[in-house]
């Protein structure tokens, strides 16, 4: 226990009566129930089961319940959970088993509802790469949604604009006016449908997890193209690792450009001619269902098949250049997402989970010894925290090929968590290193792994 205290700092306890609705009170409830989802913010934690969400802090603050409007006919349930944080705006993003992307305020108000693709949403990823001092690249913030065999991408600016419009609307009401409660149909008519890109990435089988790692160069024959290309990494049962080049739109070549002009014109002519022959006097009064968005081009780049090995979980480094992948054989693969090669391998970590973090490993600055010295980004070293639940330990390894820095004992009912990316954070604000938190579900204690080895 002394080792645990020396490398973690306790923040508080989330234990409360409301947690009993999620199964708390039974040993191992947090990790043994696959329907329990967790999402961490810097101030609060959201926990969900199939039908409702509990938002609580680790102090005596208020606890909120959110019950999403789910379809009982289709037996819809919650499948993914994440925070969306932008300045003073904090909302909950929910993915459902029917492919809906929902956004709720902390008081349970439905902010946005949109169909992404029919199917179970496996993951909602919020990430961004900001403009730095050495590489004059533009900032990129995004939300990617993973469905089995499909990945979608929402631009961060569209999400921010939607949240700001909602925030201004709700705060422009009179102080004594109750917020209007909208049903799902009214909400879809009120708010614009957020634009997004959609790709089919099931060439090598359905994926269990996926991530967009960043922008990549265009193919050789498309060097003059003005559109952007993204790299996506997927893992699954048929292929442990596969990678794709994602086109921003469907007009990807000279032939595609010709087809995109000729085919719609031909179809329009045929449709007009058919209307002259077949005139329908009946008009349908039933509301037409939203059509599924068509796929943009996803070109396969590489694939690693190693039966019976199956990819299980995937996590990205802050820059997106490294990815840690766990598989069904108890191995962890460290993938260079730019070269698309495995640069490191760990064995003997069944059911493991990984998160990247930053630690103060080297402090060679002259001012580092001063009590007033504020560490900068260059003082931190990228590390990988590996939680091995069967061993009851957490290991921290220095990237990419560095040693194991420390080992922390943890309870069997514990889970590693990481705060979501915060939209709009600028270089002017103090640098906040990437941290990893440890939640003990049996005791309710929440701790943070210390940034320094001292």
Automatic annotation (TrEMBL):
One of its GO terms (molecular function) is small GTPase binding. It comes from the Eukaryota. One of its GO terms (biological process) is establishment of protein localization to endoplasmic reticulum membrane. Signal peptide: none annotated. InterPro entries: Rab3GAP2, RAB3GAP_N. GO terms for cellular component: autophagosome; plasma membrane. Pfam families: RAB3GAP2_N. Residues 29-417 form the Rab3-GAP regulatory subunit N-terminal domain. PANTHER family: RAB3 GTPASE-ACTIVATING PROTEIN NON-CATALYTIC SUBUNIT, RAB3-GAP REGULATORY DOMAIN. This is Rab3-GAP regulatory subunit N-terminal domain-containing protein. It comes from Manihot esculenta (Cassava).
